[in-house]
TrEMBL record:
PROSITE patterns: FE2OG_OXY (PS51471). One of its GO terms (molecular function) is metal ion binding. It comes from Sphingopyxis bauzanensis. This is Proline hydroxylase. Residues 127-240 form the Fe2OG dioxygenase domain. Coiled coil: none annotated. The keyword Oxidoreductase applies. InterPro entries: DUF2086, Oxoglu/Fe-dep_dioxygenase_dom. Belongs to the iron/ascorbate-dependent oxidoreductase family.
Amino acid sequence: MTETNDTKVTARIAALDWTALAAALDREGWAVLPRLLSAAECYDTAALYPLEELFRSHVQMARHGFGRGEYRYFSYPLPPLVGGLRGALYAQLAPVANRWHERMERVERFPADHTNYLAQCHAAGQVRPTPLLLQYGPGDYNCLHRDLYGVEVFPLQVAVLLSAPGADFTGGEFVLTEQRPRMQSRAAVVPLGHGDAVVFAVNERPVAGSRGDYRVAMRHGVSEVRSGHRRTLGIIFHDAA
Ligand SMILES: O=C(O)CCC(=O)C(=O)O
Ligand SMILES: [Fe+2]
């Protein structure tokens, strides 16, 4: 299951201002990667959804109390674009993840290369791929949640908006909440355009306080889609048990 490189996407990711993105991630716990995918790449990726042979499972969210809508987890080998995004994004995010873990006094550290991190997941029994395509219609939504699939947790993940807001759908905003110690929850609505990606904390992130860093618990979800169809690509870096 090594990840095929999509060279165009790899170059595009390397060209982003990762110093500024890392600073935004440290400050907010999330950051937008503008126009990560072109409109054509978005629609080509969304068009994979009905191809059963590409996926290992199909989830109807309402059946599990996850919200309303559906998603499919890809099988290995991942489509080249998805595998390319996963490997190239991981390489940029691993240093941020290691810094976060140090600040949160967590002992786990992440290898520089995603292939090596996957070997670590697989050794822990987390062998099933987690990248997924999601699809929401009118009235659908995604409840606030965390994408944890075992003890191996890479602390950042990415979601790419494959549909055009305003044209393909209305409503359906990407929402994050954070719970600071002894405070009520704070919400952020992430402004995403067609092909934009959001990088965000899976579970918790460090925040600088007057007496050092403390951990803030994060959740993400999607508000109700009012009209049309909203499709996303989710990229989670740990595999699932
Ligand atoms: O559809 C979205 O924007 C969120 C999808 C999601 O929960 C994920 O990618 O983990
Ligand atoms: Fe999620």
